[in-house]
Amino acid sequence: MSAVERQLREFGFRCIAGTDEVGRGCLAGPVVAACVVLNADESSLFGVNDSKLIAGEDRLGLCRAILSRAAAVTIGVMEPETIDRVNILQASKLAMAQAVHDLPSRPEVLLLDAVTLEMVDMPQIPLIQGDRRSISIAAASIVAKVYRDLLMESYHERYPVYDFKHNRGYATESHQAALKLYGPTPIHRRSFDGVDEPMMLFGSSEGHGGTAR
């Protein structure tokens, strides 16, 4: 997982950042990105990999390790209103760009998972399956995933019928059924298919998500 970073250091790069996002496929909640700059001893972060391949408990422990050992960690968040306005791909890029811009110092090179950020002026290396090839991107994916999961758990307290604590805003059967019964909440992405369908129980004149509070 550190091969890309080692090679870049051999070429003279010292400040190497990795960025990744989570939540692109969800029906509700923001898209969240993280940007991580690891120290040269990143190999000590044993077990860091694509966040989707790591169990939740292990992910939380790895996130703590990353936060304690990384040179810098930042977060970028784009809310559903922005996603609906600019589309999910652009919102994901904006979240990553926000995280990069918030770093305390400018990295010399940015590693990304198969995308480039047109709004960021620095050398960029997009890697296919980057979160499984670069420890910096993988670390960013873990931090972003943990942050977003905790955020969706907080939304669960406000909108319990949607079960955000377990589905994290993804289109599970129970989540879609709740949408049909109660309609969307303010954190749902109205531009996504299936979110703004007519409610079965109340009809379209009811306030969106009002019964779920």
Structure report:
This protein has 213 residues and is an alpha/beta fold. It contains 7 helices and 5 strands. The protein has helices at residues 3-10, 56-69, 80-86, 88-101, 135-158, 164-167, 173-182; strands spanning 16-22, 31-37, 72-78, 109-113, 124-127. It has a 5-stranded mixed beta sheet with strand order 3-2-1-4-5. Strand 1 (16-22) and strand 2 form a beta hairpin.
Topology record:
Blueprint: H1 3-10, E1 16-22, E2 31-37, H2 56-69, E3 72-78, H3 80-86, H4 88-101, E4 109-113, E5 124-127, H5 135-158, H6 164-167, H7 173-182
Parallel strand pairs: 1-4, 4-5
Antiparallel strand pairs: 1-2, 2-3
Helix pairs in contact: 2-5, 3-4
Nearest-angstrom radius of gyration? 18 Å
Tally the helices: 7
The CATH superfamily label of the largest domain reads: Ribonuclease H-like superfamily/Ribonuclease H
Morphology:
elongated
- The secondary-structure class comes to alpha/beta
Here the CATH topology of the largest domain equals: Nucleotidyltransferase, domain 5
CATH architecture type of the largest domain: 2-Layer Sandwich
CATH top level label of the largest domain: Alpha Beta
The description of the largest β-sheet is: 5 strands, mixed
Run of helices and strands: HEEHEHHEEHHH
Distance between the termini: 43 Å
Overall tally of structural domains: 2
Q: What percentage of the residues does DSSP assign to strands (E)?
A: 5-15%
Let me know the average pLDDT.
91
The tally of strands reads 5
Strand order of the largest sheet: 3-2-1-4-5
Helix content: 25-40%
Stretches where pLDDT falls below 50 for ≥5 residues? 202-213
